[in-house]
Amino acid sequence: MSSVVVVGSQWGDEGKGKIVDLLTNYADYIVRFQGGNNAGHTLVVDGQQFIFHLIPSGILYADKMCLIGNGVIVDPGVLLEELDKLKTQGLEVTADRLLISDKAHLIMPYHGMVDRAREASLSSGEKIGTTGRGIGPCYTDKVGRSGIRMGDLLDPELFKEKLVVAVEEKNFLLDKKYGADPVEVDHIYGTFMDYAEQLASFIGDVSVLLDEGRRAGKNILFEGAQGTQLDIDHGTYPFVTSSNTIAGNACSGSGFGPTHIDAVIGIMKAYTTRVGSGPFPTELFDATGEQLQEKGCEFGATTGRRRRCGWLDGVVARDAVRLNGLTGIALTKLDVLSGQPIIRVASSYELHGKKVSAMPSNIKDAAAVTPIYQDLEGWKDDIDTVQEFDALPQQAKDYLKWIEEYTETPVDIVSVGPDREKTLLLNNPFEK
Ligand code: GDP
Ligand code: IMO
Ligand code: MG
Predict the structure, then answer these.
(1) Ligand 3 center to 29 CA (angstroms)
(2) Catalytic residue at 13?
(3) Does the pTM of the predicted model rise above 0.85?
(4) Using CB atoms within 10 A as the burial measure, which of 5, 129, 203, 275 is most buried?
């Protein structure tokens, strides 16, 4: 019996969906613990692409239980759309396959409106570049103790009481601050009571089910969203998302004790991407950056935005090891680097003449650091058909070795293509 946490090591989109889908083979329960439908996790199975925003990426295996923990924020309309889409693809998700925590907060229509109105009101240097899905405003209400939760859908009177208070406050903000149209209690109430009817059977106590599962010897896989540098506390604040994305939150975001976690795998892209604004020390503005963007098909899975691209950042990698307590790394998109004559890796930063070896917390400093690079030799041939470690070119092996030595963390998984099969599972975290 094992419990494994998977998190993003950089700024999101590292390939978490693909690796979670792969590891689901060894798990019984798959759990989302933070974020909402700002996430976009892509899986490719037998050439068919699936993108999940809310439902855990384990859903494609018919006999596995998927859970949405209390730390997730749920837009019920998006969840129902995702369930409907799966149905059209031949997969009917029933309540014995999906459980949503009654403590998970609801993303309400006014959250998205405030998110978008706020972004629009900021100057270009201030814009976060959010996904516009209402993430910040929803977590703000949660922490401000005025949020509405999944469980409230099952108590129409309580739901309405909370809604009336929230709408009064949000309409003041929308009208007076942003000059936007107000929202109506009755309209939202009607829509959400319809959602309640469709989702009631999926709502329950995630923590209790996880505990029962653990006691019964089930393997549990926790699926992180976003990435370490987008963490609300430890990321490049304020250019971050509004939840803790690091592994510690797998416990608080699902109601699972930290002493029961056995392994933490950091998903790391072989180079770096970022979507949205904020510091990105190894960002490339030249032809190499464009090559990575094109070859890696680096467009956001949620918003379709072009992802900014750059070299692998060892400082970010070490931050990820420290903040998450990584026991292993899953290195993805190694195939995208094929054909680069030289592969650069940042091994530290320089700031005002001094060496820096962790991301500075001051946002101006984070934007001002200059990466110090080491150059490694690249390889020519494509590697996307490679099925075992020994068949990798020596330069690719050296690249993996550099990462292992620099981060003092083993590379347990290497991914050489989007498909489930294009993966080298060197050490299975469920079998350690
Ligand atoms: P996530 O948010 O971390 O799950 O990542 P995304 O799904 O947003 O973005 C990762 C993208 O890279 C998706 O389009 C995946 O299909 C793709 N991908 C994952 N692993 C690999 C890989 O090893 N090689 C290539 N070429 N593509 C990959
Ligand atoms: P996955 O799980 C990449 C970024 C947004 C923006 C910032 C804040 O697919 O890796 P938000 O809407 O959360 O308030 O936006 O965070 N962001 C992501 N970037 N991958 C994600 O998720 C992201 N989720 C949020 O682009 O910069
Ligand atoms: Mg993504």
Answers:
(1) 21
(2) yes
(3) yes
(4) 5
DSSP of 20-36: HHHHGGG-SEEEE-SB-
Q: Which of 21, 28, 41, 53 is catalytic?
A: 41
Q: How far apart are the first and last CA of the chain?
A: 10
Residue 332 Cβ contacting ligand 2 at under 6 Å: no
Q: Taking Cα atoms as reference points, which of 239, 237, 137 lies closest to residue 178? A: 137
Reported as a single tens digit per residue, the pLDDT across 41-74 is: 999 999 999 999 999 999 999 899 999 999 999 9
Give just the sign of the alpha carbon dihedral 126, 249, 283, 336. negative
In 246-362, which residue ranges form alpha helices assigned H by DSSP?
249-252, 287-295, 314-324
- Phi then psi dihedrals of residue 274, to 5 deg: -150, 135
Q: Please confirm, yes or no, whether 352 is among the known catalytic residues.
A: no
Residues present in the chain in total: 432
Q: What sign for the dihedral angle of Cα 304, 308, 311, 313?
A: negative
Which positions ≥6 away from 15 have C-beta within 8 Å? Answer: 42, 267, 269, 330, 332, 333, 415
